[in-house]
Amino acid sequence: MKTNRPIHHIIVPGYGNSDAEHWQTRWQQRLPHSRRTQPGSWDFPEHDDWVAALDRAVTASAGPVILIAHSLGTITVAEWAGDYATDKIIGALLVAIPDVQRPDLPDAIRGFSNPRLSPLPFPSIALLSSNDPYSALERGRLFAERLGARIETLGDYGHINHQSGLGEWEEGLKWLDELSATADRHQPAQTTAD
Questions:
Q1: Which CATH number among 3.40.50.1820, 3.30.420.10, 3.10.129.10, 1.10.357.10 corresponds to the domain 2-186?
Q2: Cβ(124)–Cβ(94) under 8 Å?
Q3: Is the pLDDT of residue 194 over 70?
Q4: What is the maximum alpha-carbon separation in the chain?
């Protein structure tokens, strides 16, 4: 008898972490086999700390894994993917990619201002807002293209966070389901005996 292994979800929040009202937190409570990255520097992000936190979460997950990243978390995914190779990752949802090269970048996140924007070694979908205060749409598109992500523009959703009034963000789950379905078609089945 063949059974597919359950998909694990790793929540990769942005600067300051995602609070209780954020869709990432609500998804984490809802999705089985989910965990959140735990860097020690939420409020003054240290590049290596954030990348190492993601690597710890991936290592601790049995796999297969889908990454669910928001804002600075999307840049963390790109940085991590450039340093670590694993076939555990079967997809990534990249929500609200910030322009970390803009002139008014906060000092707190300057350690991410020179991102590695190479094609990711796994399928990814970038969800962008047309009025994101932290990234003009054309900059978000440019970053997403360099990462090799499929781009979906959502309309006027701000930074696609709790202030956007998304609640559970059921619409966002359809892209997660799409990544999961694609993964289901490509992951090897585990053989078990009765």
A1: 3.40.50.1820
A2: yes
A3: no
A4: 61
Angle between helices 47-60 and 72-83 (to 10 degrees): 70
CA distances, 101 to each of 17, 96, 135, 141, 143 (Å): 21, 15, 10, 14, 11
Distance CA 29, CA 18 (A): 13
Rounded distance, CA 7 to CA 122, Å? Answer: 15
| Angstrom distance (rounded) from CA 100 to CA 153 | 19
Tokens of 53: 């936190």
Residue 3 banded pLDDT, cuts 50, 70, 90: very low
pLDDT attached to residue 189: 44
**Encoded tokens for 74:** 């999307």
Task: Please report, for the chain, the start and end positions of each structural domain, with discontinuous segments joined by +.
Answer: 2-186
pTM for the whole thing? Answer: 0.91
Please say whether the beta carbons of 176 and 94 come within 8 A: no
E strand map for the chain = 2-3, 8-12, 34-36, 65-70, 89-95, 124-128, 150-153, 190-191
Place 167 in a pLDDT band, splitting at 50, 70 and 90.
confident
